[in-house]
Specification:
Length: 99
């Protein structure tokens, strides 16, 4: 059975600015046979997506929450610990501009 499921964000602290892109990755330490990955938010039963990678192309306020990755080998499944994703407010149009 799959075990050691880990989940991480490509941005520090799993924080993303509203409208920016966020990528989450999932990996499994042990498991044999074909493995399937599914993504869940807030304990929802229906998967958001499948595959070892979840990409939110334009993060919105409703994308904040706890994400989990579930890995299954067809017979049994294991889940990652929840990762809290925070979508921050509007990007400051002055950011990066010279004073």
């Amino acid at each position: 059975p799959p075990s050691g499921v880990s989940l991480w964000a490509e941005l520090p602290g799993a924080q993303v600015v509203l409208g920016d892109r966020l990528v989450l990755n999932c990996a499994v330490a042990a498991g044999t046979g074909p493995l399937s990955f599914s993504w869940h938010r807030g304990g929802s039963g229906a998967p958001l997506a499948t595959g070892a990678r979840l990409e939110l192309r334009h993060a919105g306020h409703n994308d904040s929450g706890h994400y989990q990755c579930r890995v299954s080998d067809g017979d049994s499944a294991a889940e990652s610990d929840p990762l809290n994703v925070t979508v921050l407010g509007e990007r400051d149009p002055r950011a990066g501009a010279e004073p």
